[in-house]
Amino acid sequence: MLEKKISIIVPVFNEQSVIRSFHERLSIVLGRLNLFSEVIYINDGSTDDTKTQLKMIRSQDSKVAILNLSRNFGKEIAVTAGLDYSNGDAVIIIDADLQDPPELIFDFVKWWEQGYDVVYGKRESRAGDPYFKKITAFCFYRIMRLLCPVSIPVDTGDFRLLSRKAVDALKQIKEHSRFMKGLYAWIGFPQKAVLYNRDARFLGKTKWNYWRLWNFAIDGVASFSMAPLRVASYIGLLISLMSFLYGMIIISKTLLFGEVIKGYPSLMTVILFLGGIQLMVMGIIGEYIGRIFNEVKMRPLYFIESYEPVDLVSELKQPAFCGDK
What we know:
Blueprint: E1 5-12, H1 19-32, E2 36-43, H2 50-60, E3 64-69, H3 75-85, E4 90-93, H4 105-113, E5 118-126, H5 131-147, E6 156-163, H6 164-171, H7 180-186, E7 191-198, H8 210-224, H9 227-257, H10 264-296, E8 304-308, H11 312-315, H12 318-324
Parallel strand pairs: 1-2, 1-4, 2-3, 5-7
Antiparallel strand pairs: 3-8, 4-6, 5-6
Helix pairs in contact: 5-8, 9-10
């Protein structure tokens, strides 16, 4: 296996408190793998001391590459940049907060050697997450599975291994509204789940507040499902049918019995109800139109401020280093 190479992609944003602990733990794992390796840190516009910490790590480890984005583009784009710059036979995506254990990489590599192109970690438990977040995450993954034409694995994040074949497939997808969890499933290829218990965050604070998670959920649904548009059409058709039937009843009642003008509260209720439905449907349509607007501009997905690659001379010496471990 020494002739094969593995790339580790680590998107980071304001992770100064945990990045060195993460790299120490990851290095122990990589030292025990009988593989060439590189670690690509994608600095997604961090505003703390993360960039300096990464430079210190690179000065001590020749297998480390640093990709600094010009600003904060978001995790989905940062992962995409890492895939673009990776050149391993297999690529592993992992967060730096140590919630996903680097030791699971051994299992990922084992299943990859057996022919799986995508090996992903499936969470059996989520230590440290609030109860409300656990419930919403549970519901989100199952709703996505019902709405999407492809089967997206439940309780699964970005922590996974991708073969070179899978990475090359993902690199062909240039859409801007990227829901990576859906794209991993959409490309197909043999996939394998590895169960694990997700740890609490080691240090620092999560960047995913509920507002960002809500927008993330909307992106996921709008990127992979036309169901909201169909539901809006069905609601409009149902209300139109009900309105027609109610109108026929009113006309018949007026012709047969006459009608005294009355019902201001009921009239306002109907108007507000129909107005609310119309605004909701327009909002759904607007989400899709907004994505069309972003795509037709054809802007680049990201810009690179600087790139510090792996020291190729030192990399050639890795087999002896791995053997010592």
